[in-house]
Structure formats: C-alpha cells, structure tokens
Amino acid sequence: MLRIGLVGAGGIGREHLACLLHLEDARVVGVADPVAELAKSAAATAEATAYADYHELIGKVDAVWICTPTFVHAEQATAFAEAGVHVFCEKPVALDLASADRAIAAAKRAGVHLMVGHVIRYYPETVFLKRLVGAGDLGEPVFAFGRRLMASAVGEHTGWRRDFSLSGGLAMDSAIHEVDTVRWLAGEVTSVYARVTHGAPEHPAVDTDVRSLLTLRSGATAAVDFSLHQPIREWSWGVVGTRATAFSPRRGEVRIARLGEREERTVGVDSVGDPVRRLNRSMLAESQAFVEAIRADRTPPVSGEEGRRNVEVILAMHQSSREGRPVQV
User: Are the C-beta atoms of 222 and 189 separated by less than 8 Å?
Assistant: First the structure.
C-alpha cells in the first residue's frame, strides 16, 4: 500500500484529492495545510490525518502531492526528496532554474522520483494529437501553437498570483502549460523571441499579454500566446504538418484538415470531466502514471528535468522581451 500525503488543500489540492482517492493499492494518509479548516475538511474526505505543517508528513508517507502556491514548490519538493519521499509537484516546479536544480538533485541523491504536474499532456485532445504526430499522419511538423486567451482583470486573481516575486507572473502560472504542450507535440525549443506586456497599471510587475515565437530543434517554429485582454476567449493547441493540420479548440474535439482536401474532419474525444465520479479524468491519469513510475522505478512521464525546461522557456520569454532580442535556451 502506497502511503500518500497531500500538501495544500485549496482548489487544486482538492481536485487532486478527488483523483487520489481512486488510485489502486494507495491511500491518502495525511493532508497538510496551514489553514486548519482546509486541512481538516480535506483530511475528513480521505479519512486521513490533518496537519498544519507539511514537515509532519515526513516519515509517515511514501509519496507526496504538492499543490501549494508556486513560491514554495521548490522548497517543499526538495525537503520531501531529501527525506526519501517520492514527489509529485504541481507546475511550475520552481520560480528559477537554481531552485529547480536543487529539487532535481535532491531526488537523484535520495533515489526517489520527481514528477511535475503538466496535466494538459493527459487531456484526451492532446493525447489524440500526439498520436497523429507520432504516426506521421500530419507529415513533418512545421509549426505548432498553444493559445490561452481570455478577458480577465489581474485583480480577479488570488493575492500571491498578483505578486510577481511569488508567482513568477501569470504566464509562468498559466502559459507554462502551453509551452509544455508545444514541446511535447512538436519538439524541443532552442530559442525564444517574445514580447511581454504589463497592461494593469495597479499591478505593473504582472504580465498581462505574452506573444512569443519559438524555434524548435527540428527547424520548425511554434507560437505560444497568452492574454488577459481577449474578449473573444480561445484556448487551443495544435500542429501544422507537411501533409495535414490538426488542432483542438477543446470542447472534446480535434479538427483535422489535409492538404488537397476541401473539407476538414472533426473527431470527438472523451471529456476531461467525469460527472459520475466527480473528478478530472486527466488528473487521474496523470496521478496513475506517477504511481506506476514509482512502482516500476522508472523516470516519470513529466520528470523534474522536463518541468525545469518549461520554466527555462518562460524565463527566456521575459528576458527576450526585456532585451528586445531572441534568447537561446
């Protein structure tokens, strides 16, 4: 029986908890959160013990899910890894590369596994796109994209997210998903050219728009766009190949158009939500993948190094915008 601890009982923590309760031969034995009411409520759901300090889980768990604010991810991941606990850490793994490196190194020294939560890889739409790319149905990828465009005031985001020193910015918090998706679908990023806009005068350090052009190792290009100033909402990702284009506007579908054919085809895929079990199917698949990696003693699908690479690309976007030039990564 794998003993699991949950650190952070807020919104994302409770989403993960709903999935952790459905893992086979695993049990949530402890929930830690400095907000006593949150810890007790989540612990009661799992019939587990509530703790105010995450350190109290050490020695009582084999694996931990870190679902806390970004600015404590690396510290907590490192502490658990040093204690010999397998770590699932929500994205981003850290705010800077040195902190990410410390967490990765701690896991390696202790012989435990570190996985970063980039759940979009497990969305049915993304899985279908990956299958198309892998099978060569699209030909060679020449362009990939990820867009997260919405209309949202910075003030609507929780306090720590509005503090750049604590969150790394809204692109680090959100668009990092699109960076990971583009990398997974089309290949590694080698350079970044970006423009970052700070469009909220009351929060001048917070990025509200990021437009970026990425060069991939294969020679293909990609674009990652993030905006809070888009009244026509769009959250999509896709790949343009030499034979066909496929993209998903989410909503449980993937659209495919082949060169030389007039009409596109729409393929339906499973929904992310499971209304019967009241959980996120993709999060459950993500957690199952980590547990399987622990049991087989193999590198998790989204390793600490993979999470670090995504942080590096986001940091390069900010650097490119500040310096007005492409940045190598």
Answer: yes
